[in-house]
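Lecture 7 notes: from sequence to structure.
We start with the chain below.
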Amino acid sequence: MGKVTIYAVSDSVGDTGLQVIRSITTQFPDIDFKVKRFASVITKDALDRIFERINEAENNMIFFTFVENELRDYMNQLAIENKIKAIDIISEGMQTISEMTGKTPDSEIGRIRQTDDEYFKRIKAIEFAVRYDDGQDPEGILKADLTIIGVSRTSKTPLSMYLANKGYKVANVPIFPENESPKELFKVSPSKVIGLTNSVNFLNQIRKERLRSYGMSHHSRYADKNRILEELQYGEEIMQKIGCIKINVENKAIEETASDILDYLERIHQPTKGEN
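Predicted structure tokens for the same chain:
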């Protein structure tokens, strides 16, 4: 067993599980571990989506931290049904303390972080993401921990908010041929820029649905495949000029793309949260 994929799943930010996983995996230097983190998982539907994306051909295991019994039980149920080993990191400790003291845990998600510095960093990061959403002010690129770029409907805003909830100050900028890319994108380190792309067919379907939701004709140039291809090619050129990483978000949940970005940031050890 040379490769193992570990899913770190949490109802909070997921740092606890990640630290435990790091402590364990470093003891097995000959094994190639791939860790996928899924944070803020608070519904059964979110758990279902995670299990749908697990590749059964791989060696998989799950480390999870849930404080609510219902979600914890559902995780164990799914793990048994899918024949995947799932490790509950905090349950045994909580149960032991409860039995010893006769007290019942509050089961309040993220309580340990509600009044600490990390909590206030997240609040500031969310405010930052709102202020510098959709290229509203290019100056935000210079202040951001991370800037997400891509054509329309590549999930830039949802990803920005998701990462903001983890304390990262994220700006996002739309890329299209008629709009000159902000010069600020070329002033920051390429490692601080994430490029998002997608397939022509997938974007075509997404944009058609968006037009329908607004009561507009799906024959609009916005959803035209040739136009989409033009935008994607232009986006590729900009990403190559910047020298940034590129992620294809086709058929990916927000949580999965965010996990890829967090893994990337961890590998390069930057940006540092909230230090700009």
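Points to note: The chain has two domains: 3-111, 117-268. Residues 225-242 form the longest helix (18 residues).
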